[in-house]
Amino acid sequence: MDALSGLLDGPRARGAFLLRMVMEPPWSVRIEDRAPICLMSTTRGEAWVVPDAGPSVLVRPGDIVVARGPDPYTVAHAPDAEPSARIGPGGVCTTLRGEPLAQSMELGVRTWGNAADGSATMLVGTYLMEGEISGRLLDALPPLLVLTAEEWNRSVMPLLDEEISRDEPGQSVVLDRLLDLLLIAVLRAWFNRPGAHAPAWYRAMGDPVVGPALRLLQNEPAHPWTVAALAARCGVSRAGLARRFGELVGEPPMAYLTGWRLALAADLLRESDATVEAIARQVGYGGAFALSAAFKRVRGVSPQEHRTNCRNGKGIPAPATAGGRVEP
Fold first, then answer.
1. How far, in Å, CA of 191 to CA of 43, rounded?
2. Please, are residues 261 and 284 in contact by the beta-carbon 8 Å criterion?
3. Which of 20, 83, 206, 248 could bridge to 30 as Cys pair (CB 3.0-4.6 Å)?
C-alpha cells in the first residue's frame, strides 16, 4: 500500500455530492457547505473561484481546482460578481435570503443552473464527510489547489462527464469511485510536480528504509510491532530505522503506528456496528479496555462517545430538506 492508497482506502467517497453546473452570465454562487474537499473542473467556458482570503483563480476548460474546507468561497463568472445563490451543508441550495432554489434551477439528473444552454459548464464533486484517516492528507493541502489542463492526467474526466447525468441502478457507487479516481489523479500530479513541497510521509514512501516500514505498518496494523521487529522485517538495524524514520516522517515508528491504529478505529466506529472489542483486535489492541485508554488519551473521548457523536450528526452532512437540496 502506498501513501495515497493508505490515506484514501478508508475514507472513500460514500454518497458524494456530484453535480454538473450550467450557467450563463451573470452568475455567482456562494459555497458555505463546510465540506472537507471539493473538486471543480470546467468542461466549457470559464469560471472564477474566489476564496475569502488569497487570490482569485480563473478556471479554464481542463483545469481543476480542489478547495479544502471548511472555509467558504465563491464560484462566479467574474471575480467581483455579487452572489445570488448559496450552497450550504448537505448541498442545500437557497437564495441569500434562504429561499429554496433546487427545483427552480434543476436542469435534469444531477444538472443544475440558470440556463440549459449556458456558456459555462462545470463538474463539481464534493466529499461530504471528513474521514479520520484523511486528516493527515488534508493537512498537507493548501486551501486552494490549482492544476492547469497541461499539469495533470485528465483521462477520468470524460468518463465522469458522461456518467454524472445517468440515472441507472448503482449509479451513486459508480460516481463515488470515479470521484476517488479523480482525486488520486490530482494528488499524484500535485505532489509530483517540479518544486513541489510534498509532505514528509509522502516523500518517505520512496525511501529504501522508511518506505517498506511504512507499508508494513499500514498493511498490518494488528501485528504486535516493535521497532526491533519492524527493523528486522526491513533488513536494517533498530537504531538506523528509528533515526531515519524520525528524520523523514517527523515522529517515531510506534507513535505513527498508534495514530494509524486510532484513525482506523475511528473510521470503523463511525461506519460499522462492530463492537469496541472487535474493532480493538482488528486494529492491533488487546481488547476494548486498551483501545479505550489510548483513544481517550489521544482524542479526548472514549470510542463509544466518538461513535455516539458521529451518529448524532457531529461531522455528518445535513440531511436532505424538501425542496431545498440540489440532488446529487
1. 24
2. yes
3. 83
Task: Name the residue with cell 516500514.
Answer: 213
Q: How far is CA 148 from the centre of its chain?
A: 20
Which pTM does this prediction carry? Answer: 0.75
Neighbour tally for 283: CB within 10 Å: 21
C-alpha cell at 36: 472537507
Confidence of residue 4 (pLDDT cuts 50, 70, 90): low
Over the stretch 250-300, which tens digit does the pLDDT of each residue have? 899 999 999 889 988 988 898 789 999 999 999 999 999 999 999 999 989
Distance CA 316, CA 328 (A): 16
Cα distances from 217 to residues 72, 199, 208, 298, in angstroms, run 36, 18, 15, 19
Q: What are phi and psi of 296, to 5 degrees?
A: -70, -35
Per-residue pLDDT of 50-71, as tens digits, reads 999 889 999 999 999 999 888 9
Please give the helix or strand (H or E) that residue 156 lies within, else none: helix 156-163
How far is the C-alpha of 228 from the C-alpha of 32, rounded, in Å?
48
DSSP 8-state symbol, 206: T
Output the DSSP codes for 81-92. PPP-EEE-GGGB
Cα-based distances in Å from 315 to 128, 130, 270:
9, 7, 10
Grid cell for residue 42:
470546467
Residue among 296, 4, 10 at smallest CA distance from 131 = 10
CA–CA separation, 141 and 67 (whole Å): 9
Report whether 89 contacts 317 (CB < 8 A). Answer: yes
Q: Which residue is it, cell 451518529?
A: 311
d(CA 278, CA 287): 8
Q: Which helix (H) or strand (E) holds 146?
A: strand 144-147
Q: Are 59 and 149 in contact (CB under 8 A)?
A: no
Position 109 pLDDT exceeds 70: yes
Whole-number Cα distances in Å, 59 to 21, 72, 76, 85: 14, 18, 10, 20
What's the CA gap between 42 and 39, in Å, rounded? 10
**How far is C-alpha 307 from the chain's CA centre?**
20
